Amino acid sequence: MMHWDYRVFFDHGGYTFRTVYYDDHAAIVACSEKPIEPFGESLEELQEELNLLQAALSKKVLSVSDVPTQSVHPKVKRGKSLQAVRQQLGLQSEVAKEGCAQEG
Q1: Which tops the pLDDT comparison, 5 or 100?
Q2: Distances (CA, A) of 41 to 46, 47, 79, 84, 101
Q3: What is the total count of domains within the chain?
């Protein structure tokens, strides 16, 4: 199973954070194309994100040349879309409800 963490990269004369993906043997297989920025939907989530970024500072600094080139990007399971969640819960989108109200 593939796993990931954040790592520090030295690129274009400066340091950034990127997401790095590893295979089952902890070998680097890919990294995000662009640097990441901390994000959280709550202060607690933002703090957790900052903790993960802080942990990256204690690891070896990488460069893009440390990451194997791949023509296929790793498949990462992402959350459901808002539309999929609404369908699962049996809810219409607010836009659809407004459209119906305007027609009637």
Answers
A1: 5
A2: 7, 10, 15, 20, 32
A3: 1
